[in-house]
Amino acid sequence: MKEKKILLRAGIILLSLLSLYLFLKLRVVWNPVWIMLQAIIVPFVIASFITYLLHPIVEKLHETGLPRTLSILIIYLLFFGSIGYGFYRGIPLLINQLMELSANAPRMVKLYEGWLTMIRDQTDHWPMGLHHRVEGLLGEAEQWISGMIDGIIYSIRSLFDNAVILTLIPFLVFYMLKDFSLLKKAAWYLTPKKWRRRGKELLRDADESLGSYIRGQFFVCVIMGLLAFISLWFFGVKYPLVLGMIIAITNVIPYFGPVIGAIPALILAAAMSTQTVITVVIIILVLQFLEGNVISPLIVGRSLHMHPIVIMLALAAGGELAGIFGLIIAVPVTAVLRVVLEHGVRLLRHD
């Protein structure tokens, strides 16, 4: 009986993989439909994520005695008011800095080409394999820097192209926060009866494992980005908003994030002066000390309960599969997979 169950499950998995393969092969047929669905799905996913971030804060405020509607309005206005003000003040500044960076790119490229030529000359007497490896790394670094700038500009263009769709997000978030209990009931009744209890336990454990980490890491990234922007701007480093955004986004990556975020700042600083490089290094070291010893322990704490080796392996896999984006989502995805695996093992033991 047990062998039949194993064979049945193996057959289901194989059929699912075959169906997925055929589905991907028919991309030409369903791709136009997927593009249309993205216009609906993306705002809903973003709104759901924001609701997930804000709901516990709303509940804590409501527990102090404030009416729930007033609690929602306060948190809602603070969150979207801050984002709106940041866009109003930051987007023109960001565009100006990117345009200035683009205008100065030829001069900076010539400067870096001079450095690269010097490095190649210095390593010319090295063993042939090692010299070619250095040249390959330098070429990859050039491509990475170029791709990073193009990616930022493309993201801003996409933001403006989808501005009408993105305006739906604040409205979706308000009604999701307002009717959160109704949404939970709807999800409960839409779930088949035999999966309800297990599904509820799975979601509860995933939230306990991941919820506080995601919320805490989000606020840590915002704080680090603001501190980086203010520090770089105060000491006269060029493009402080661009660099602050990069530092904020990469800070979500454990262990390697600070290094990845520091590279663009150091590259730009090296094109200015040695003093600027020293200033940027000191700023980054101070920020990382504050993040590691004050900000993260205070806000995030040890909420993830994952061994550093597991985190590093997850980052290696995420980086290999999806680059920087893979590094960003690697840890949360691993935490969820761990919970799913634990529930799967528990389910198999009960069968």
From TrEMBL:
Organism superkingdom: Bacteria
* PANTHER family hit by this protein: TRANSMEMBRANE PROTEIN, TRANSPORT PROTEIN YRRI-RELATED
Write down what this protein is called: AI-2E family transporter
InterPro entries reported for this sequence: AI-2E-like
How does this chain sit within the bilayer?
Multi-pass membrane protein
- TM segment ranges: 7-24, 36-58, 70-88, 152-177, 218-235, 241-260, 267-290, 310-341
Location of the protein in the cell: Membrane
Q: Which UniProt keywords apply?
A: Membrane, Transmembrane, Transmembrane helix
Upper classification of the source organism reads: Bacteria, Bacillati, Bacillota, Bacilli, Bacillales
The record's family statement is: Belongs to the autoinducer-2 exporter (AI-2E) (TC 2.A.86) family.
Chief location bin = membrane
